[in-house]
Amino acid sequence: MSILPEKSISEKILSELTHTKISEHRAHIGYSSAGEECKRKFWYDLHWAYDRIVDDRLQRIFDTGFIGEDFMECSLLNTGYSIHSKQLEIIGCHGHVLGHIDGIITIDNIDYLIEFKTMNDSNFTKLKKEGCRKSKRGYYYQMQAYMGKLSLSNGLLMVYNKNTSEYYLEVIKANKFIFEEIESMMFDVLTSEFIPDRIGEKTWFACKFCSAKSICQDKKPISINCRTCNNADIENDGKWSCSLKSELINTEQQRLGCEHWIIKESLK
Q1: Fewer Cβ atoms within 10 Å of its own Cβ: the N or the C terminal residue of the chain?
Q2: pTM of the model
Q3: Which has the closest alpha carbon to 225: 27, 47, 95?
Q4: Which helix (H) or strand (E) segment is 178 a member of?
């Protein structure tokens, strides 16, 4: 009986831990997109215009974040604080934007939206130096959206450094002007038949690492599904309809599309 060399065993296991897959389109846009600087990217996401490629490494980063949330919550519970309204669903933009808060914590009789995040040391150091609004716009805007929807005046960001196990906490004050900016941006994109302008060229930092770069800058083919079809219409309550069939189409139907698919005029 032959025995695999140790190197071959390592390579075999690593190959099984390294896969790439297309992530299934979500029915709603997440509130994590509230701070999206590029309206064009938001429009693409809403209309499922490109496939999201997720490899195992990226998925492990997401999973580590979920584990970190539980760990941070336990740390707070051990100090005597309690968290309520965990995973409370927040719905916006006529049902097309959806999010779930990490919870609400009460400190000295004041309610705070609490948001848990994990970061590597580089991002953590930048956050400590510059603060959330400047260094992590996406987190800041996400919290502003939640606070605005829940009529909360205060938020508490709690961050775990994955390299050093250090904690960082920052109180985030609600800003009604930013909340109104978020609501306006989402409504504008939702009701627009046309793709918003690009914010830059493919060499720009924000564009270089954008997940929509393949279709926005590199001119790759548009994904085929109901939301990229010229016969699809966006409706209230998070729904979509087909003008050809004169009926609502559910999420699974939207993903599958049909033989009558024709690309949206604005995507040509």
Answers
A1: N
A2: 0.88
A3: 47
A4: helix 176-191
* 233/79 Cα distance (integer angstroms): 50
Q: Which of 168, 6, 30 is nearest to 91 (CA)?
A: 30
Dist. CA 79–CA 107, nearest whole Å: 12
Residue 52, both tokens:
């999201």
Phi, psi of 111 (to 5 degrees): -85, 135
Residue 263 near residue 230, CB atoms below 8 Å: yes
CB atoms within 10 A of CB 188: 13
Locus of tokens 């966006």: 234
Q: Is 83 exposed, middle or buried (0-12, 13-18, 19+ CB in 10 A)?
A: middle
Model pLDDT for residues 162-221, shown as the tens digit of each residue: 999 999 999 999 999 999 999 999 999 999 988 999 887 766 777 888 889 989 988 899
The conformation of residue 109, written as its DSSP 8-state character, comes to T
Strand segments (E) across 120-245? 154-161, 167-173, 232-234, 240-242
What one-letter code names the amino acid at 263? I
- Measure the CA–CA gap between 212 and 202, rounded to whole angstroms: 11
Q: Which two tokens stand for residue 222?
A: 């548009």
> Cα torsion for 153, 175, 186, 134, to the nearest 10°?
-120
**H/E segment holding residue 43:** helix 39-46
Q: Report CA torsion sign: 115, 113, 206, 233.
A: positive
Note the pLDDT tens digit of each residue in 185-199: 999 999 998 899 988
**Which tokens go with 66?**
């979920």
Nearest to 228 by CA among 254, 249, 251: 254
